[in-house]
Amino acid sequence: MTVLHTPLLNSKLPHVGTTIFSVMSVLAAKHNAVNLGQGFPDFEGDIRLHQAVADAMFNGHNQYPPMAGLPSLISAVADKIGMLYGHQTDAQAITVTAGATQALLTAMLAIVKNDDEVIVLEPCYDCYIPAIELCGGVAVRVALTPGSMTPDFAQIAAAITPKTRAILINSPHNPSGTIWSEADMLALQDLLEPTNIVLISDEVYEHMVFDGNVHLSALRYPALAARAFVISSFGKTYHVTGWKVGYVVAPPSLMAEFRKVHQFNVFTVNTPMQQGLADFMQHRDAYLKLPAFYQTKRDKFRAGLAKTNFKLAPCSGTYFQCVDIDDLTVPERNLSEADFCTWLTTEIGVAAVPLSAFYGNGFDQRRIRFCFAKQDATLDLALARLAQL
Questions:
Q1: pLDDT at residue 266 above 90?
Q2: What is the CATH number of domain 47-282?
Q3: 27, 68, 130, 302: most buried, per Cβ within 10 A?
Q4: What strands lie across the sheet with 228-233, from one edge to the other?
């Protein structure tokens, strides 16, 4: 008789479980709550883009594209970053990826070896640390300044050792909604100048910067661009997160190593999406108008929250609004961030996520995050439920 035996594994990610976003989304669905926890739009992208992808499928763009991406899409990306950031590049410096998460992991796999250290600024998106650990690297966590969520360069400098291989930054920043200033970028440039540290700059919310500010991409700073992988996301920009298409820009020497890994973990990205995006990128209004589009939603949401006892944190970018819960009059304000979010979902009918989930040590600063990338009707319903707070 055959004995069935499933081998035991020594997990590469022993501390990883179900993400907070999935947990809160399941809880929201169970209790019919408005889901402002997970960061995705509940509205469709531009019909012109959808039609461009459909046309690409029906016009025969259904076989493997070049490994690095369709030349037409790479050219369109190069034109965009040249126009917006003054950074002139070519096809050897851009690769189309299966979303920003694949771009981040591939960059890590290309440069991080066993025991290399990677500085990560917390709070941070949940894929950063596992990506480092899968490469055998060591994540060195440095906290952004609590409250303001600004980088503390003294602490960053103190974290640099001979083993430091890379530093990962994110602006506009998820989860806090803050953006890096000119002074921040120049301080980073000065800090890295004498080192051989690689910069990984997560810029997926590059087109969501408000109040007349501009996105200060690492590509604007030649000394940073020369050592950087800069990552962006078509899914975030065009409201099609489920398509999972992004891109990375890097100097040719770094990109050559990136592509060695890319060709063996995804090889390439689906052709009709790439062709449709290449055609659609001629409509520059789609991303040039995005700051105003999301600022309108931000302002609407903030105006509604201002009628509650939540204390609003600044929101200079992304589509996330953070609030402090200490000033609420309900007894549940004394719960941990995570427990408060559970209560808010089950009893008030609005899902949010705790900032503590973005820290390795679960640091609780009485702050939670909402996503306002929603239809007005969705925001109105959420605000009506939150009004009792």
A1: yes
A2: 3.40.640.10
A3: 68
A4: 94-97, 246-249, 228-233, 198-202, 164-170, 117-122, 138-143
